[in-house]
Specification:
alpha/beta; eight-stranded mixed beta sheet; six-stranded parallel beta sheet; signal; DUF2334; Polysaccharide deacetylase family protein
Amino acid sequence: MRKLLSSVAAVAVAASLALAVPSTPAFAAAPTATRSGAGAPGSNAATKTLVLYDNTGPYSWLGEDYGTMATNLVSHFGSWTAHPVGSYKAGEMAAYSAVVYVGSTYDEPLPTAFLDDTLAGTKPVVWMYNNIWQLTARSADFVAKYGYTWKGYDTSPVSQVVYNGTTMTRDVRNAGGIMDYVVSDPAKAVSVGTAVRADGTTFPWGVKSGNLTYLGEIPLSYITSNDRYLAFSDLLYSVLAPQTAARHRALVRIEDVGPDADPAELRAIADYLSSKNVPFTVAVYSRYRDPKGVNNNGKAEDYTLRQRPLVVSALKYMQSKGGTLLQHGYTHQLDALNNPYDGVSANDFEFFRAHVDANDAVIYDGPVKNDSALNVTARVLASRSDWALAGLKQPTIFEFPHYAASALDYKTINTLVGVRYERGLYFPGVLSGGTVDNSTARMVGQFFPYTVRDVYGSTVIPENIGNIEPEPFNQHPAVLPADLIANAKTNLAVRDGVASFFYHPYLGTAYLKQTVEGIQGLGYTFVSAAAMS
């Protein structure tokens, strides 16, 4: 079995690194450029969302991280405009379907125009976490109008949020607290989810009243596949597409298929999925490299798809059985480096640096040496040449190995391909238009329960419930079909969401069968990647 870094773990690590808020010196606010973007494929051209975020103080970068994540999600519904809340102008929200404000900075100075326009009640506003006290102070009759007021942050450990009957997890390391409330008129102030304390007592996770939906925390940190992040993802439907009917689709991607793949395993996978009428995607890297001979008694190996005609034949067979091939990098490793393991294709990162520390944890180190658009383009074109020489049609979807790259790499891929099928890393400076900060301490990882067009401009087909890992590794527990099925069940809370997972063919078909049929048993229908893009 290959040594693998779970892409699920990769994004979780990135999120926890970014959102732990390490101590940093104060610096000036980020640039206040306004950014706009188009909606994801299939979104409503008439739906426009204004995303506002905090950008003052020593953690202005964190405000932009949160703003980026919110922006990525709202792109599912339509076009968007995003900028710091401090540059809000009177009447600005009138041009939008709704407003999302992420209050990450305590006592961020909010323009009175924003407060007054929110209180006017003409547009739906989703307000997260801090600075609700500025809104209530600006209103002469907030309690009478909305039927509640804020009470103070409850810092009790909360490990669960119940949303529309679905119990979701919440990481107790998130110790910033959740706002508690005093509700005076339950007919006006309706609970949006329930936070469950360790002792079983509860309080509202959020409150909706009139045009205002207030969430007592920012549900964009420490996110996992069954986290209360899903509640926020669904809540956006209530604000931006309330007439959306329930629909539950599933996707499966066969992962890390290279010239060294076992053709028999690929054909067995294709036969099983075809027998169940399940479309699927195959993530292919075109060149296998083992520069130090790790798997070949110390003798280096280096060959491409064209040199393995039986693998190419198996890939074409997979296409005939409903498979779509995507480009999964070029070599899925980097030179002869341990990045982080051994330099062997499918084990290592290709577009980002990483290492394994003394505690057996994978640590992100940042962009590769000489990171550039030229480097990315060269690798993509070299891979395309391999595909052509092997007689395979050029792929139209890309996936970064281990879901990791710099902001420059993501932007470059968008110009070359335009569609990614993965999770992603996001960095301060992209949304604000400032200098991009590629430091791993400030990046954030995000997955999506539906298709988005992210801040890099790419359509992103979601992978959101993980993959099978029969054995624990790198401090991560084993993951079995029951775990993925449980994640899929939680994702049913997203009214038009997906359950998307990936699978390594060397695991055989038994785990795949359990997972596919378990997800189908929940009411999901498997669709092709094309259906999502």
